[in-house]
Specification:
three-stranded antiparallel sheet, 3 strands, elongated, 112 residues, 12% strand, single chain
């Protein structure tokens, strides 16, 4: 059992598929990686746009997909819009993927 299972809610297959689908786009994955590196501080949308050199409308579309999948959140601070990775959801997804790793693998491997 993973230690994180004690603290994280169980994830349903459909929810995991939705999150993985959202991350299946190179631009969205790049956005998510930027936000993961930033941790709890998050990152202003304008800074993400500059780093990725994508039009504002394109960025908005990709951010909306990540928000809808529950992977990131947005908060307004005065005139700036900040995005933050939802680290609990990231941990839940990683736990879901790793939970049964090698569960059906034989304990005894025959050497070739």
């Amino acid at each position: 059992m993973f230690l994180s299972e004690v603290y994280l809610p169980a994830m349903k297959l459909e929810e995991a598929a939705k999150q993985l689908e959202a991350l299946g786009n190179p631009t969205r994955l790049a956005i998510y990686r930027i936000l993961i590196r930033r941790g709890q501080d998050g990152c202003p949308v304008g800074e993400i746009r500059k780093k990725l050199e994508v039009p504002a409308s394109t960025l908005s579309h990709h951010i909306a997909k990540l928000v809808n999948a529950g992977l990131i959140t947005q908060e307004r601070d005065s005139r700036s819009l900040f995005c933050k990775a939802d680290l609990t959801n990231m941990d839940t997804l990683m736990t879901f993927l790793a939970r049964n790793c090698c569960a059906e693998e034989s304990c005894f491997q025959i050497a070739s």
